[in-house]
Amino acid sequence: MLGFEPLSTQVANSAYIFDIVEITGLKEIKIAFVQIPVGHVVEILEYVGIDIYPRSARSCDNRTGHICLRVENLEEMFKELKAKGIKFKSKKVANITAGTNKGSKTVYMLDPDGYII
pTM of this prediction? Predict the structure, then answer.
């Protein structure tokens, strides 16, 4: 729904992967590469075989990740995605009134597993 184009997937389970990440109980890492509309490629990882943080984690909690996607018309996209059933943490699009992004707009949405984007 965000216009990402799946490029490839792979599973990383070679010995050197475990040496790099040093995570007890890790069985493998599922990797997906997707191209976003402006041509950049994003790598998405899923660590398999370990306890994960609950999807109830807040964006300010220790060890949570963050991804920000810049779009042309956030208010239009917000309405369109809500109409398609996408759930949002934010009730509305907020105007940024201070800092580097002053004058921009922002909203938090939830991925299919309930994690914040």
Answer: 0.66
